[in-house]
Amino acid sequence: MLHIIWLIFIVSAFLASLYQVIILGQIETFSEVMQSISAMAKLAVEIAIGLIGLLAFWLGIFQVAEQSGLVAKLSKVLSPLLTRIMPEIPKDHPALGSITMNISANMLGLDNAATPFGIKAMQDMQSLSPNKDTLSNAQILFLVLNTSSVTLFPIAVFLYRAEQGAMSPTDVFIPILLATSASTLAGLIVTCLIQRINLLQHVILLYLVGLFSLLTALILYFAQLSTQAMAEQSSLLANSLLFSFIILVLVVGWRKGLNTYELFVEGAKKGFDVAISIIPFLLAMLVAIGMLRASGMMDVLVEGIASGVALLGFDTRFVDALPTALMKPLSGSGARALMIETMQFHGADSFAGRLASVLQGSTETTFYVLAVYLGAVGIKHSRYAVGCCLVADLAGIVTAIAVSYWFFG
User: Residue 197 sits in which domain range?
Assistant: First the structure.
């Protein structure tokens, strides 16, 4: 599936470039596409190199946590849920611990920590897979949860809105949480239906009720705070939890009589190899995305959607923010740039400006996540993972548009 989408991206970029040159007379288009290839190739290496230090550090910490038995204890928190939605994973397998850490880091908005934990989770699940070049059911569900994960603290969006002069930068907080929750729920339901997992089991329902109760409580609390107070308190909570985890791991390891330094170094050595191994996968995906963007294909899609919506007689205001939604699964930095551009052109407090902010916080960079995680374990066949991830993205986008009309329309 992924190789077909990759080929479609490149062929679409070529056809769009021909249209730009032959029909519109934009003779510089081919040059821009080739420049984009060079830029994306350089970016792929920069991203991988930038990950080396983080991967080494967190894999080192994780090595200590595993050997001390701490990960096994932490995994028990989500083990009853994970063993039911991922029945391929045995009850006491190390994968449950790394999955728990990854999901927790994602919810706190700690991307730098979530990626190493996610790579470790994929590697742990890979040890259980009979087909090493094909995604297992558990890996697919894990990827869907990652690309649609609920982020409780979308602080970056608030800061960009404040920078662009929004009167109340945090007014998109609740819409973002509603949209990202819808994305996660849709991804979970679709994937479990395909895998024939019964989501109506009592344990699963209890976890879902507990999760959304926590989400509701956080919404009610943080919605009443100012931008500065929200940024301070969420940053304090997220980073203090992470720092506390590091100290806890090292102290528990020391009390167990382990040589934490040697264990850390042993785990950190793996970081370099993993970071280098993902370069070819990142290169392939980022180059295709860059070509698609430079060819003007994204603009063609937006204009086509706008025309179709107008013909149906519906409100077309949401189309002004749609480039952010279309770019987000492809490139996080590209979507961020489009969000800022929308706020600059239409105003941070305009409907389009607010909707672009909600869209930015509601979905994840799907193809980047797939490229990194599949590359980390050398998987070539993604089965139906891309489709499920895109369904989750679509649910997030549709919900973002709906709740933006509800709150700001």
Answer: 2-408
